Amino acid sequence: MKILEFIERVIIRIVDVTLVALFFMMLGLAISQVFLRYFFHTGISFADVLTRNLVMWVGFLGAIVATRDNKHFHIDVLTRFLNERQKLWLRSVTNFFSAVVCYFLGRASITFLQFDPTGKVFLSVPASVVGAILPAGFFLMAVLFVVQMIGALVEAFRHRITPESA
Hints:
The protein is mostly helical. Helix content is 73%, strand content 3%. The protein is elongated.
């Protein structure tokens, strides 16, 4: 269990630092672009494309943070009618299926990025580098869902909660 907690902490640190850095880069670039256009009637040629791509990166990193904090979009109508024991088992099952979906979306995004392997976005930056957040984001979310699933199972077994007693 300590290995899973270590993996989760490493992912959390990397995502948090990257998210903050990219957000401030995006914000600074947008402010600079407005300032340059308003006062000097010019701008940075690649700023709009870079800002759009940074929005995608910040969005995916935000989704990873939401997954980590269990604040992602989910329907909890059923959980209102379950006791704590049943909620743990349901949480582990939904985390498993969420991990599977994220895994397949990650694989699909790799296929998507391979459609145009030589494409460039801006400043000769390959589209695969800019789009790397797609598979990385989905695979990181899958890992976090697996960690949360194992955590729910461990908590269920720690309290001697079994499917039969639920």
